[in-house]
Each structure stands twice: as structure tokens, then as C-alpha cells.
Amino acid sequence: MKLKDTTKRAFIISAIIGVLAIACIIRLFELQIVNGDSYRERADSNSVRTYTIKAPRGEIFDRNGEPIVENRAGFSIQLFDNDISAEELNRNLNDIIKLLRSNDSSYDSTFPIVYDYENKLPAYDFKKNESGAHSGGESDDSALIAEWESANGVDGFGTLREIVGYFCDRYEVSGEYSDEEKIDIIAVRYEMEQRSFNKANPFVMATDVSDVVVQKIKEKYSHDGFADIVVDTIRNYSHGSTAAHILGRTGIIYAEEYETLKDQGYGMNDIIGKDGLEEVLEPYLRGRDGYRKVRMTDDGRYDEEVELNRPKAGNYAELTIDLRLQKAMEESLAKNIGEAVGEGGSGAAIAVDPKSGEVLAIASYPSYDPETFNENYDELINSESKPLFNRCLNGTYAPGSTFKILTAVAGLESGTIDTDTYITDRGRYTYYSDYQPTCLVYSSSGATHGTIEVSEAIGVSCNYFFFDIGRRMGIEVMDEYCEKFGLGQETGLELSESRGVVASPEEREASGGEWQPGDVLQSAIGQSDNLFTPAQIAGYISTVLNRGTRYRLHLVKRVGDYDTGETVMENSAEVLSENEISSETLEAVKDGMRQVVRYGTASSVFSDCEYGVGGKTGTAEVSDGADNVLFTGFAPYDDPEIVVAAVVEHGASSSYAAKIGREIFDEYMKINGVIDNEDQD
Fold this sequence. Notes:
Distance between the termini: 126 Å
């Protein structure tokens, strides 16, 4: 009986063991065979770390192959999601922020609340979102504030302190931190959230950090998997501020930009072109990132490389500008503006190939250094001289007497006058009883220019002559020729530009004013409501020299594949419009412009010039200081290869603008071997 019970008990135990063994086998089969790949991936995700290998951004060269924008190696701080508590995460972030600050570096964030050190309060600053830099001061843009508060669900709070408190609760930022530290931690946590920080998507907290920061991060964090240093390519603007306004800058992608670009393969940590040619050429300059997967040991050290996918460099771009001419233009602007106005002066210049529309050089003064843009953003944005403003493309100026070339062409081509039409300058123009403007020479000395024809009128810049032909043909004809020659229209440049303003009754009425008959006279000499950019002035003079063929201005010559050198994109001369003028008209205005530099207002600047040149100065009255002064011209005289337009704001004397033109022409002639480098120095 006892034996039977023992046998029965042994059978039951064996059965239980058997069932358990079968269950284990089934479970092992499930783990290793059915779901083996899935669990292996999970294990790998805990021991394998993926590092992005950034593709070098395409470099930018001048027309002769000289590098303008290159790349250099740099280091960025990358954070990884390693399941630490919010308390530890916030403590680590605070320590890293302090490390960055003590080494003249900053973190990247679009959080629009900063700490106002002066008032010891939180303050809105939406301007920092444009640069990625942290700057103080409040934004007065209530629309931006309302939009952001609504999007983030904080529009119900009464004060910024309450909003900061809300984010402290949201990110579990404790009261142990100062107000400044809280805002810093929140800003980074906010950006991490915006860029979808998770195990599969590390977060780049700061770029181009110093060697000291690199060493400290590696010492403190690399072993625990929270933060590490990755090698990055940093944009290097080889010649400092040279051509800054056209080159633009790069920066880390923002959440709203990512939403637009994610379908094109962009990641949340990518660097993109923010403005200028960096932005325009983004589809070409951007490379294809690679990656490197590395298995880590339990103590955070590298074990082995699991996978490697090499990056592909972006395409390179060749511009139309000549680096040597560009530098000469910028130096000339700085020197002559300094002499004319002193500190705080401003102006712009552009040089164009009239036969193709290629921009040979373009500059706005004052300028800035793209590499230190973030660090200097507060100073740049608050400067009265507006160094970030591209005056050549977006500054609009009354053209003054540089417009008389257009008036002459319109008068000749419309049949209002011909080359044998003579007008006697009587000093005061008395056609209207209630408005009787004078010629400048008459108002200053009581003299007149006598009886002259159109070339002589250009040469001596006779207001009386142009008052009369302007009145005869009327504003409609002048506006028609403005349109034909590109004034009041975009030049076609790849960058954002102003259209300017062409004086007309419709324009005046649209702005709430009333057009007067005397406005026709003022329009004819480049005053009234006429406002054009230096680029438009250079474009219209080029069109005159081409007998009415107007080319699109452009800065990009070609884009080439980095590996093969094959052309990816190329710009050629593009005709925007053709409005042919006669050879007789062209020669008449050219002769007038030659007289300007030989005997007229620019003769003191060009008296010893070894090559043929034509030009026209302009002086435009402004309401807030000395006159703006302009110059436009071309060289060589017989077969023009370069057209220049320059403006000096409040320069008073047109000789300063003419000197800029002369120095640009001289450098061009030296580059092309027309004059020796030792000459003209």
C-alpha cells in the first residue's frame, strides 16, 4: 500500500516536472526562435549606440575656384536617453550649461523666455529664435507671444513667473535651482521635447564646443551613457566678414523647419542653411549623413563596431563673384564711408558684368562675421547702423542724378527730343507759376549752363534741361521706360530683394498723398517718390549699355558634384526683356557719362585714369541729415565689361561714391592686366 502511494506520488511529481520542462522548452523556443530577432534587437538597443557621421556640407568658391566657405572639424555634445530620473537629468543639464557658460559657449534652444539680468525677471525674447543665440530683452511683438502661449497651452496664465512655474512642474525642475538656472534647464528640456528626444533620436545640445568642454564631458558622462562628444563639421567662413550678406549662415534645424523638411530626409539634429546663399543652395550643399553603430561594454567602453554607413559630401558651388574684387569693394566702402561720415556710416556697392548679368562683387557696409553671429547677435540686432541689413538688395534710395540717364533715354527713344535738340538753361524753371525749381549751379552761384544738348546736359548734370524734357514727355512715358529697364522690379538675384518704388500718381495716391504737376519735374531728376536699390541701378545701366537687352542678375555660376566634378546645375545669361534702343541714343548717353568723368562732377576722381570710363554721380536729399550720394558707371568705355553702382548714406559729397567706383574699376583692371598692380596705388 505504501509502495503504491509512493509510486503515485513519484508519478505526479514527474508529470509536474515534465509539464514545467515542456513549458520551458516552449518558452525558450518562443524567445530564441519565434521572437529571437525582436529580443536580440532590444538587447542590442541597450548595448549598441548609434553615432551619426555628419556629411560635409558642400563648400562655396568664387569664380576662380578660391574657397570662400569651407568646413573644419569641430565637436558637439550629444545626449542619449538612458532612462535616468527627471531629477538626475535636470542636475546633469544644469552642470553642462554651467560648463558651457564658463567656456564661452552656449546651448541651442528655441524656448522664447530668457532671464532678464537687469530686472531679475523672466522676459520674452523671440529674436533669439532667429539666431539660436541667447539674448536679453523683451519682445514687443504681442502676436508672437499670443501665438506661442496658445500653442503651448499657457495662455491662461497671468504672468511669466506663472508660465515658468508651469514648465518647472512639467519638467520636474525643483526649487533648489535659482530663477536663472530654472529657465536654462527648462529651455533645454523644451528643445529636447521639440526635437523628439528618445532612445532612437539623440539630442545635440551644443555645437562647436571648446577642447576644455570636450574633456570635461568625456570625463564625467561618457561612462554612464548620458552624454558624449561627436565629431562634427563646422562651417568655416574663410575670409571672415567678406561677402557675409550674400553667403548667409547655417544653424541647427528648428521644430517648425523640421516639420517642413522631414519628408526630405532631414533629422532633428541637422544643420541647415538659415539665410543667404546657404539657404538658397541648401538642396545642393546638403550631403547625406552616414552612421556608425558601436557595441558598448557594461562599464560604458567601446567594444566593437557593429555597422558602418559612410556619408556622402554635399555638392560644391561656384559663385560669379571674384574674391579679390569683393575684398577691394568692401575695403573701399569702409574707407570712403569712414572719411565721408565717420563712425556709424553706411552704404553699399555692386559690380556687374553687363553682358551676362553675373555679379562680380556685392557688398553692404557695415557687415558682420557669420562665424560669430550667435555670440554677437545682441550687439548686431541693436546697432543703429544695422549691420545685418543688406543695403545693396533691400536698401532703397532716391537715385538723384543717376536717374538722368533713364530720363535721357526715354526722351530720345520716345521722340520727345533728339540728339540735336538744344535747350537753354535759364536757371529757374518757370513753366509753373506756383512751383519754380532751379538748376543747382544757378541756386549756388547765379550762373547757368547756357544752351546745351542731351550729352552736355548729362555731363554737367543740368537739372533745368531734364525738368523740361520730363515735363514734355510726362510721367507715363518715364514710368514706361522705368519698367523696360528694370527699375521698380526685382533684378532676378537669388536672394530676397526690394522692388523699390517708381514715382507715379497711382503710387502717391495709394500712400494717401496727392500728385502735383511739379512731381514730374522732380521725378525727371531722380527725386519725388523714386526709390531704387543699388542692384537695380547697376541693372538698369547695364540694360542701357546692352541697347535695351536686360539680363537677370545672378550670383551662382554652377554647382558641381563633390566626387566627380560633374555639373549638377549651371546658370547662363538669361534675358528678362528686350526693348531695343538706337545706337544713336546709346552713344549720346555714353558720351554724356564720359563727360561726367572728364569735365563734370566726377572729374577730380577720374582725372588721371589710364583706361576709358563713363559715369554719373547723384545727390539725393533726405529728411534726416546730409544728402545721400551715389555713383554709377562702366569701364572700359568702348567695350564695357563692368558696371558699378555705389551709395554712401549721408555722404554729402558725391566724390566719396565716385571714389568707391574708381577703386573698384582700378582693381578690376589690375585683375585683368589692363593696368599694373603698382599703378594707381
